[in-house]
Amino acid sequence: xxxxxxxxxxxxxxxxxxxxxxxxxxxxxxxxxxxxxxxxxxxxxxxxxxxxxxxxxxxxxxxxxxxxxxxxxxxxxxxxxxxxxxxxxxxxxxxxxxxxxxxxxxxxxxxxxxxxxxxxxxxxxxxxxxxxxxxxxxxxxxxxxxxxxxxxxxxxxxxxxxxxxxxxxxxxxxxxxxxxxxxxxxxxxxxxxxxxxxxxxxxxxxxxxxxxxxxxxxxxxxxxxxxxxxxxxxxxxxxxxxxxxx
Length: 246
Ligand code: IPE
Ligand code: IPE
Ligand code: MG
Description:
The active site is at 25, 73 (proton acceptor). It holds the Pfam family Prenyltransf. By secondary structure, the chain is α/β, with parallel strands linked by helices. The protein has one domain: Undecaprenyl pyrophosphate synthetase (3-Layer(aba) Sandwich), CATH 3.40.1180.10. The chain has helices at 27-32, 38-59, 78-101, 117-129, 146-162, 173-178, 225-236, and strands spanning 19-23, 63-70, 104-109, 136-144, 190-193, 212-215. It has a 6-stranded parallel beta sheet, with helices on both faces. β3, α4 (117-129) and β4 (136-144) form a beta-alpha-beta unit. α2 (38-59) packs parallel to α3 (78-101) and α3 (78-101) runs parallel beside α4 (117-129). The longest helix has 24 residues, at 78-101. Bound molecules: 3-methylbut-3-enyl trihydrogen diphosphate (2 copies) and magnesium ion.
């Protein structure tokens, strides 16, 4: 992958959401439609990840969050989980240098204790190496579940209360946010789910309180820049009220 071409055209007057989150769904169906094993769909899904990161940089998106593997996905057959781990390993090894060269700052959210040691080390390295970058904040949700994330935050806060660091009455929305894995990342403005399913599947439950949702009928391996631009155009036409009267 080459150096990503820079920025939107001067004529591009789109209102680009600051933070786009994507539930990348439909790899299995994409493969089944071709009479291929599910793993081929996951492999093609990695190409779509690459395309989407590149398009996000080009469109001037500041934060991109990708749902790669859920807490619940560990329930899949061992062979599929192992294929997905292999692809994750390969992606991290092959893409890190390019992502770094392109100024992408990587952050991983989710329970990484469940990953093999070498994958954990690759995840740590990706975060460390890219920590000073500023062009695109790429967050990858791996072994992530929003309920698990919230439960973790509750435990952290309960510990602080028990230790007398804060009082129960001082627990605010800000305190909860500070104990989520997404601390420091603005809430998503736009959430896209591919594959036609219209559900959130335990992704960013707290953070998506006022996010705009777009459900696209495309299967994730077919997702490209045109789909992203279409979603952004759709987003630009929405009126966000945040509960107020405009
Ligand atoms: C998304 O595609 C990838 C992961 C959840 C890891 P799926 O594997 O869920 O594909 P479908 O939904 O079965 O088509
Ligand atoms: C959501 O997709 C998780 C990811 C895309 C990583 P799933 O395919 O796991 O969701 P369900 O099972 O259809 O709700
Ligand atoms: Mg799915």
